[in-house]
Structures are given as structure tokens and as C-alpha cells.
Amino acid sequence: MANKVYPNAVTAVADQLRDGMTILSGGFGLCGIPDALIEAIRASGVRNLTIVTNNPGIDGIGIGRLVETRQVAKLIASYAGENATFARQYLAGEVEMEYNPQGTLAERIRAGGAGIPAFYTPTGVGTDIARGKETREFNGRPCLLEHGIFGDLALVHAWKGDTEGNLLYRLTARNFNPVMATAAKVTIAEVEQLVQPGAIDADHIMTPGIFVKRIVELPRVEKHIEKLTVRQRA
């Protein structure tokens, strides 16, 4: 079996990057984002990227870093309201945005990973989302044709992974990571803990190693908080 373990994020992505590629990036807000892998892409200088992600986070963190360096040409996401730099670029016509209802985005990625080219959904009928899309009626209900998403590279963050690439996500960090891990030619995972095969119970594996080509153990993990909300003590 080929060795999937790389010493760091830079070496893991080094020969996989090119201008104009499509990259899927896991996470929700700042939770479960593949931060080290994103930083490696920023440092590489690769440009004109199409980024598929739930949202580009905030300025200067995660995908926000690639926005600041103008490496993103197009964003396919469900929300971008927390990133002021992206908003300025979008309103100035400097970057393209393809909005998706959040459930539709998740299903487009899942479909891409399952080899399903397209599917119909009632979500978005009668809204701007429907512009230019084929509509068909099922049981008296109009539905839009949405296409599956399959990228060149998927970046995911997991709590634990073994050297064969089997992954276990923790709590909310599960979000978009599992579906994205299946929906690209090459999937690279960064993990908080790297263990030997068999250390993760087979019933607990969320992404089978067959989907993961490369894996990196993080020397340290900084978990960002997008909005800190606390309850006052009694």
C-alpha cells in the first residue's frame, strides 16, 4: 500500500496545485476548516481558483486568506456575509459568486461523489436561484435541475485519522467534510491525531480511507471562534 502520510501541509499539496483548478474545502463558518492546507495553498501562489465551500469564513482566516490574496476567481457557496473583503470584491465585479441553498449545495457535492450527474429539487423554484435552470414537474410540484459537483482537489479536517486514511470527525466539525472527501479526484486530510490502523473502531469510521490519498498530522491546532457568545454567570 502506498504511503499516504506526508510530513506537513506544504508537501502534501505541492504537486497537486495548478492555476484554474476547482478545490472543495470543508468546514462550516470556522468550524472544521482545513486551515493548514488552506495556508499551504495561499503560500503556493496558485491563482484563478474555483472554491467550493459552505462559506468563505471571515477576513484573514481560512478561505478568507485566499480571498485577501486574490487567488479566488469564483466561489460556489451558500453564504458569504461574514467576509467583508469578499463582499467588496464581489460588488466590484472582481470575483464571481454562485449562490446555492445550503441543502442544495450539500446534495450537489454528495451527488458528485456518488457519480450522479444531476438531480431535481423543489428548493429555489420561483427565486433568483432558478434563473437559467431547467424546470420539471413531479407530482404536481415544479423542481429545478441541479448539477453534481466534483472537483480536482478536496481539503478536509478530521479529529482523528489512521495511516490508511480512515477518518473520524468530532461534533460540529463533521459538517461538510465527509461529503467533500468523496467528491474530488484527490482528497487530502489534515488530522489532529494520527493513529495506526485498527485504532479507530470500524463502526466509528466516517470517511473510509479509500477516498483519502494523502494525510497530514497537525503539530498544533488553533480552533477559531467566529462569534463568541457567552452566558452571564448567575
Provide a count of the helices: 6
Kindly provide the radius of gyration, computed on alpha-carbon positions and rounded to a whole number of angstroms: 18 Å
What gap, in angstroms, lies between the N and C termini? 57 Å
Structural class: alpha/beta
Specify the CATH architecture. Answer: 3-Layer(aba) Sandwich
Helix content: 10-25%
Number of strands: 12
Organism: Sphingomonas tagetis
GO molecular function: CoA-transferase activity
Protein name: CoA transferase subunit A
Keywords: Transferase
Walkthrough of the structure:
It is built from six helices and twelve strands. It has 234 residues and is an alpha/beta fold. The chain has a single domain (5-217), classed as Glutaconate Coenzyme A-transferase (3-Layer(aba) Sandwich). The chain is globular, with a radius of gyration of 18 Å. The N and C termini lie far apart (57 Å). InterPro entries: 3-oxoacid_CoA-transf_A, CoA_trans_fam_I, NagB/RpiA_transferase-like. This is CoA transferase subunit A.
